[in-house]
Amino acid sequence: MLQVNDYPISVRFDPEVGIFSPCIETIERRVSDLRKVFYDHQAVQSILNSGDRLIYEVRTYPFITNKSDMTLGVTRIFPGKVGDEYHMTKGHIHERDDQPEIYYCVYGCGYLLMDTLNGQFRVEPLESGVIVHIPPMWAHRVVNTGNGLLVFVACFHVPAGHDYSLIERQGFTQIVVESYGKPTLIPNKKR
Ligand SMILES: [Fe+2]
Hints:
It is a single chain. Helix content is 8%, strand content 47%. The protein is mainly beta. The protein has a six-stranded antiparallel β-sheet, with no helix packed on it. A hairpin with a 4-residue loop joins strand 1 and strand 2. The chain starts with 11 loop residues before the first strand and ends with a strand. It binds fe (ii) ion. Residues 92, 94, 101, 140, 156 line the site of fe (ii) ion.
């Protein structure tokens, strides 16, 4: 049960490491959590045979008052690839169709993929200082194509909800792979 607090609250964010405290919940996503998301299932299996490395982690703090709610989330995506596909978030669409979100890239290098799942697809390059408004009904995923951490801050309402299943089944219109040493967007064969 989330605690209601009608008074101002602040947290301390350390931009060097991309961690704020106090936080209410930390979610870890490992290769096994994204086994259906990466297209190269053999690469997933070979990684799992020798361990289950961390892909990203999310720290959240839902600020709940008697008349409002707003969640702060900070995600750290570790660098790396599964096969030739870069580390990324699972990706989701909000369960409610009236719920947008703000992403602020603190540092790192990558892409924000956005998809309506019915024909519209957008790619926003991410680097330090980029802020993106994700409208309602656009699925979203962040891909880390750099050699270091990619850190971004998110703000969204608690009742927005997270539907991961649609994306797990069909993915985004394009995927981001390394080709000739460079991040490259290619069509997703599931779509
Ligand atoms: Fe979201």
